């Protein structure tokens, strides 16, 4: 009895273990109308699958595309791009559930650019198109397509697939994510051999985005705050003068140089992705570049400590420094939300920022203790180069 029970549990566990793996292959998928296709492909991103049959005698392509919207109530899409490899210019079949009936319906969209996605008949014939909702929550597109003569002669087509979070008023599609999986969802479909190959363009774009993110996180997000901490706290110790100043200058100039490189990669990415705009991230980035450029000039415009304009220079230098510090950290987090890297990278940056904040609080307390102790002694030595009436700790010098 015990042996049979153990065997039953073993086989049950084994079935549960392997069943997810089986369900993740296109060969295990069945259709409610028992459609049969010559080829099926597990597409490399977005957990999507393509079944298709191509008849070269009449250049007809029958497809079944299966995927799951990124959020409940979202949409899925499969498209052919007649002239390019990306989404812009593609002719798309899009499925989402009707908000009133809850029935999945196919719609056609002409994606002439990233900023122009409008419901429109496609540039090639689609004599038959239907959709269905599957039991696992995924959606399926079924279509028969008349492949244009020029593509039929080549024997290959550029395919693009995508998933989105929702549908707005008037059937307008809500913008999909721009994570790595979304950017990789394109490739070339070999109609005759039943194979698909992916393009390396998505990898290149992701690599550029990663470089952009790393450069800006290091510059605006770490080096600039570190330089500010040196100027505010290390200078409190007389033995650190003038070493603190050279460390401060080194950190800020290095941060500016790296930040400009990151800003340049951002401009390059923007020029290569017309229609994709992250307004908040972009405007903060421009503001950071302008403020930091003006701040660098502070090094050359810095009057002597006893100059009458030094007071106003300090106001300008400190104000710009605080603005760069705050905006830089905010924009780094905005970049994380756009790039969507593995969670560990965002967590690592948060740990660095929290650690720097904790160290700043500790140094703030120590700094005030030093200042108050000097004040209690009624020291005649100026604290930071100002006259005795200004011997209290000055604001952040950057």
From TrEMBL:
GO molecular function, one term: metal ion binding
Ranges annotated as biased composition (Polar residues): 387-398
Domain DOMON residues, every copy: 46-164
Cofactor: heme b
A Pfam family of this chain: Cytochrom_B561
GO cellular component: membrane
Chain positions recorded as heme b binding sites: 212, 248, 281, 317
General function of this protein: May act as a catecholamine-responsive trans-membrane electron transporter.
Name of protein: Cytochrome b561 and DOMON domain-containing protein
Species of origin: Gossypium tomentosum
Upper lineage: Eukaryota, Viridiplantae, Streptophyta, Embryophyta, Tracheophyta
